[in-house]
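The record is given unchanged here:
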Amino acid sequence: MFEGEYDVIVVGGGHAGAEAAAAAANMGSRTLLVTMNLQTIGQMSCNPAMGGIAKGQIVREIDALGGYSGVVTDRSAIQFKMLNKSKGPAMWSPRAQNDRMRFAEEWRMALEQTPKVDFYQEMVKGLLEEKGKIVGVRTSLGLDIKAKAVVLTNGTFLNGLIHIGEKQFGGGRAGEKAATGITEQLSDFGFDSGRMKTGTPPRVDGRSLDYTKMIVQPGDENPEKFSYLDTPILEDQRDCYMTHTSQEVHNLLREGFERSPMFNGRIKSIGPRYCPSIEDKIHRFASKDSHQIFVEPEGWHTVEVYVNGFSTSLPEDVQFKALRSVKGFEKVKFFRPGYAIEYDYFPPTQLKHTLETKLVENLYFAGQINGTTGYEEAASQGLMAGVNAHLKINEKDPFILKRDEAYIGVLIDDLITKGTEEPYRMFTSRAEYRTLLRQDNADLRLTPKGHRIGLASDERMRRMEDKELNSKKFISFFRKTSYRPEAINPILDRLNSASVKQADKMYKVFSRPKVRMEHMLEMEEVARFVSENKLNHEVLEQTEIQVKYAGYIEKEKNNADKLQRLENIRIPDNFDYKALKSLSFEAREKLEAIRPVTISQASRISGVSPSDITVLLVYMGR
């Protein structure tokens, strides 16, 4: 059935698996995507949306590197918002509502149009291993498929267990069976595993809702998009809505707490801290009278609605009764109840920065198997695992992004260095260099890197170079061109900004906090320059940020450069930490377990103190 040996086999067709398969194949590897159901490739298992705080930056980074998530999102979007616009540009985060069915369809079509991707529908029961190396997979039908590298992206399917009240049954997702066999084999190899929990809200019939009782949540007036390629911009958008729970709703939910698997001990694993279930919110924030509920349409033409903020594993009758007491939901009809799911994961400290396992060669983990939560986090890991699997089998240098280069770098470094005991979600606060890692400059940061390894296309590179060149030209224009006081003062007066008495360079007045690009465009010389050079929105935005935040950006670059010196001090692979008695016991234990590659990585390990780092530096002659 299979012609010879594949270069890369990807197990699982979710966001991580889809990106892994696309990346490996586009770089030249003959790739097989094995999944339990070919109809659910790229399935949005939870909310029908991509992006959000920090997550939107990750999608743009995936796109800049040559991944598919941004393109698929743009082609299936029904609403777009740039979040945190009232804050500085380091906090701006794009988010799109998506048509769930079209999103999965676009992913399937994108992969089918990727020449080196083959598909096979079946469960993978185990891995083929020889002398500490993975050499393929074994399916539930007993077929052995050979490969040089394997990427596991099993999501919530590894021994998945679904909970609805006191009922529980095996499953990796509603209506789909769990995957078995892999956890047990990996444990035999010596891997540590654990259990995590996530949940999802009920899906309801939009025809049964009264939207007049809710607050409308429209998309942006001038919507942007995710991909740096020429994907469509939304002309029409679907509204979302917001309503609230109440004390009555909370009391109805509390009636079911004794039957809740969260409170009766059936669920023993830890769920996502920053996306708690409704019962968890009521329990933890008992003093709050209400919580927000966001009502999100599932697509252009379906009546199905996602009830964001009402994730729950309470009994279905309790869910229904409580939701009918929410304003606008008085006559709600359920499509399906919410549920919680427990699944196996493997603490990511067992991985290298390439996402290859330390214990077994040519085996890579990506997505929720590493303890993360979220489509975007999963997709970025999948892309990096696919890239590094291809590079490894072709005996090329690994591709690793540093913390000052990408949110993807922060994500993977956090996982590898610190591990996680609860579902890991990305936030802007996790990145110490977030002024450098903005959503607007992901292409400038990463497209050259993606192009160098053969993932980002020539077209992406050309677009990035045009944007960079035009931004530099525009900044240069502001530095060289002087304003006339009679032209700028009416604008400054309107903004309550101090007027000027004599001509000076435009760059200086543009640097003022209240002066925006829209105000500078009121000046004839600026408008003419933009028109003559056909500068687009991306160039205008990039120029404004570079001018207004130049000092902050430069300061952050200097801080990153200082830390880079520690990044350059590599620790030998066979370094014997036990021999250094001056290290604290905890530091010796953690360093021995994680085996950091550089002094910088060692300094980020929880439990390793500055004095421990000093001991290492002294020992290494620094």
In short: The first strand starts at residue 6 and ends at 11. The CA atoms of residues 446 and 569 lie 24 Å apart.
